[in-house]
Amino acid sequence: MVELIHRSPDIYKIDVPLTGNPLKNLNCYVIKDGGESAVIDTGFRTEECWQALKGGLSEIGVSPEHTKLLVTHLHSDHIGLAGYFNYPDTTIYMGKVEYEYYRRMKEGDLMGRIDQQYRLEGFPEDELQDAIKTNPASIYLPDATFPVTTLQEGDTVTVGGTTLTAIFMPGHTPGQMIFYIADKKIMFLADHLLFDITPNITKWSGIDDSLRQYMNNLERLLDFDVDLPLPAHRNLSNKTLEDRVAEILAHHAVRLNQILKVLEKQPGATGYEVAGGLTWSMRGRAWKDAPNRQKWFAVGETLAHIEYLMAENKVCRVKKERNGKMIHTYELV
Ligand SMILES: [Zn+2]
Asked: pLDDT tens digits for 201-229?
């Protein structure tokens, strides 16, 4: 499904379905101006996503062989099909920090280190193995790296007479870039701010306190004059950015408090056990019956919040041996 959502420059939204995933869809945005085009994000590396994207692009006369592809971040629902744009007449753009992290995920030992981190937080091995096997975050990534032109804060990409400015907004991922058309007050938000769901904030290997970084950058969004905020998933909204930023900050404040309550009752809990004591929208399922990949995301999110509380000196980490293995446990300070 393709929808024209803005004229001059013409901006289209292609609905790319993410079947079976709680995110439901990806909003792929296409900007056309003066015979040029740019595509923002792609969907998973699956046949279903590719057919939806390719069909949408051809409907509006854009070919993956002659365009610009802007990848906002390394999540598979955004970068998955980027390799399908690897043509001499198409430039793929990505934030420098994000691209370097992505390369380490694909070519280095980063994924192994992330798995090890989950073991340390008490994630049971059988559940971890199942989560790794079924995790869309890794199985729908591109099968190889591809050449990109890297962007840093303030760099611009032009599409005919339209200028897109890259804004560095890490937090959701180590180096997510969002894009701003300043003279039209249009912001392509990627997953930095979504209207119907709260973006997942997780613990990234080698990065401290991603939640604080995220919350600071959420407030930074309000420095920009935005009339048309365009999120990467689900519905556009009539809600103002100010209202939505306040709601998301309140959501994290509630979650931080819940964690303190769990640790009050269960001092010495692992990250996995803290996550199990929180309330999640798991479509009505109890924690023990939740799919392992959802537990994986929930534990990552819990760890990001625990790190925030550790930086506030409200929670401390105690390393312990349990069943012959070293694990992290947490206590109130
Ligand atoms: Zn994402």
From this structure: 999 988 999 999 999 999 999 999 999 99
Measure 53 CA to ligand 1 centroid, in angstroms. Answer: 18
Percent of the chain with pLDDT over 90: 82
Helix axes 210-220 and 241-265, enclosed angle (nearest 10): 160
Compute the distance from residue 78 Cα to the ligand 1 centre, in Å: 7
Is pLDDT above 90 for 9? Answer: yes
Going from the Cα of 74 to the center of ligand 1, the distance in angstroms, rounded, reads: 7
Q: In this model, does residue 271 exceed pLDDT 90?
A: yes
**Average pLDDT score over residue span 123-127:** 94
Span from the CA of 227 to the centroid of ligand 1 (angstroms): 23
Give the burial class of 143: count Cβ atoms within 10 A of its Cβ; 0-12 exposed, 13-18 middle, 19 or more buried.
exposed
Q: How far is the CA of 289 from the centre of ligand 1 (A)?
A: 25
Looking at every residue in the chain, the average pLDDT score rounds to 94
Distance from the alpha carbon of residue 286 to the mean position of ligand 1, in angstroms: 25
Domain residue spans in the chain? 2-108+143-240, 112-136+249-332
In the prediction, which pLDDT does 83 show?
96
Cα 4 to averaged position of ligand 1 atoms, centre (Å):
24
Class of domain 112-136+249-332: mainly alpha
Domains 2-108+143-240 and 112-136+249-332 share a fold: no
Does the pLDDT of residue 110 top 90, yes or no? no
CA of 172 to the centre of ligand 1 (A): 7
Q: Which CATH superfamily hosts domain 2-108+143-240?
A: Ribonuclease Z/Hydroxyacylglutathione hydrolase-like (3.60.15.10)
Longest dimension (CA), the chain: 65
